[in-house]
Amino acid sequence: MIVPQPLISVIIPTRNGGPRFRELLAALRQQSRVPDEILVIDSGSGDETLALAKKYGARVISIAPQDFDHGGTRSLGARSAIGDLVVYLTQDAVPADSEALQQLLAPLTDERVAATYGRQLPNADASCFARHLRDFNYPARSVVRSFEDRVRFGFKTAFISNSFAAYRRDLLAAVGYFQEGLLFGEDTFTVAKLLRRGYCVAYAAEARVLHSHNYTVTQDFRRYFDIGVAHVMNRELLESFGSPTGEGRRYVAAELAFLVRENLYWRLPESMMRNAVKLFAYNLGKRYTMLPRGLARRCSLNRGWWSVSPLKGR
Fold first, then answer.
1. Which of 48, 232, 246, 261 falls 20 to 30 Å from 290 in CA-CA distance?
2. Residue 224 has what DSSP assignment?
3. Could you say which DSSP state residue 242 is in?
4. Are 66 and 194 members of one domain?
5. DSSP 59
């Protein structure tokens, strides 16, 4: 008896995708496991994004810019998709080879695995800080994590990135897809729910995309402020995995060691300054209810969110 292959839907939220989006679409066409559907959810592109999507055979759902929501928009994609398995990519994450999609999906043959994510490699223009971030979060060794592994991995147990991730659509539906109205981390909070239900998340190091950002100090501040807000808003869900503080300390130590190995001693003061800014921003974000709403908005990377969110605890 021949078991039919599951249908695969690739879901890409877009807004002015630029040249990287063209590279992404071209790379998807060259995959050894070609997706059965490419679904683009566009929130008001003014460049050639829509034309490119249609040229490469993607189905397009258009939404208003103000309706974009990290969780809600991705949930819309999953609900609209034909696939049994849904793959999420950001518009600037380009598969590094023709096996990327197949390698990402491979762990899902294990019925215990509900979600999987791939390795993100730095772009050619990545700064030393961007390169280390990718090295730290996306090592060369694959791993499968369960809820019981929180004793070993702590907060990292629930880590995943929707820049390149795949889910069983039925299990995603069972936990209500992605939470709407989140400022940050819709992927991690969904995986936390799946883990608590007894499923596993797999990191597939052989599934590789090129994806990195050279954040400025200001962008780092705003990003970590948003992380702090998201963590305190979802404290009850994440508290069983432990505090992210320990992971933060490991990251700082690893970055300093990385710079020494690379003979970038002159970047050590900048590293310490950047990490001090991140820590301050994160703790400030955790205390967002004490800030005037306008000030919190100015501290955030996602300023539009503050105009529409009801904000718990405010």
1. 246
2. H
3. -
4. yes
5. E
Number of domains in the chain: 2
Give the end of a domain, one of 210, 239, 273.
Answer: 210
Nearest residue to 40 (alpha-carbon basis) of 55, 32, 30: 55
* Cα separation, 278 vs 234, whole angstroms: 20
> Which tokens go with 41?
């959810």
203-218, pLDDT tens digit by residue? 999 999 999 999 999 9
Range of the domain at 264: 217-302
Confidence band of 304 (pLDDT split at 50, 70, 90): confident
For all residues of the chain together, what is the average pLDDT? 93
Both 204 and 247 in a single domain? no
CA 225 – CA 219 distance, rounded (Å) = 10
What does the DSSP assignment read for 3-32? PPPPPEEEEEEESS-HHHHHHHHHHHHT-S
69 and 176 fall within a common domain: yes
The pLDDT, as a whole number, for residue 236 is 73
Q: Does 307 map to a domain?
A: no
Four-residue CA torsion sign, 314, 233, 71, 214 = positive
End residue of a domain, out of 210, 238, 266: 210
State pLDDT tens for residues 111-169: 999 999 999 999 999 999 999 999 999 999 999 999 999 888 888 899 999 999 999 99
Query: Cα(15)–Cα(43) distance, rounded to whole angstroms?
Result: 6
